């Protein structure tokens, strides 16, 4: 790539650097991306998350997300995944 030197002038994430070295379509094919490692939410999990949110959202002085995480069945989700899914829903 004759114009790769221009790309080197700007800050790159590890994923972008990997994409530059392996080819620009490598991340689109799903090679070791972070997003592919996160299991998608099933409709049953979304329904359970919705029910847990409505159950614990009115609790005074408590952390709603911590209460939801304590009652989610395996496989466990991270706090960030739960918050992101709640915002998306």
Folded structure, characterized:
The chain has 89 residues and is an all-alpha fold. The chain has a domain at 40-88. Helix content is 55%, strand content 0%. Helix 4 (43-56) packs across helix 5. One of its GO terms (biological process) is DNA repair. GO terms for molecular function: DNA binding.
Shape: elongated
> What string gives the helices and strands in order?
HHHHHH
User: Rg, please?
Assistant: 19 Å
**Helical run tally:** 6
Q: Main β-sheet: number of strands, strand sense, barrel status?
A: none
Uncertain segments are 29-33
Query: How far is the N terminus from the C terminus?
Result: 42 Å
The number of strands is: 0
Tell me the fraction of residues in β-strands, as a range.
under 5%
pLDDT averaged residue by residue: 77
InterPro entries: Timeless (IPR044998)
GO molecular function, one term: DNA binding
GO cellular component, one term: replication fork protection complex
Pfam family, one: HTH_TIMELESS
């Amino acid at each position: 790539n004759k114009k790769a030197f221009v790309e080197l002038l700007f800050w790159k994430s590890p994923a972008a650097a990997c994409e530059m070295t392996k080819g620009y379509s490598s991340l689109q094919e799903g090679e070791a991306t972070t997003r592919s490692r996160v299991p998608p939410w099933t409709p049953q999990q979304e329904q359970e998350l919705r029910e847990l949110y409505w159950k614990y959202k009115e609790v005074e002085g408590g952390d709603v997300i911590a209460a939801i995480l304590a009652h989610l069945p395996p496989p466990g989700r991270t706090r960030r995944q739960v918050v992101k899914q709640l915002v998306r829903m």
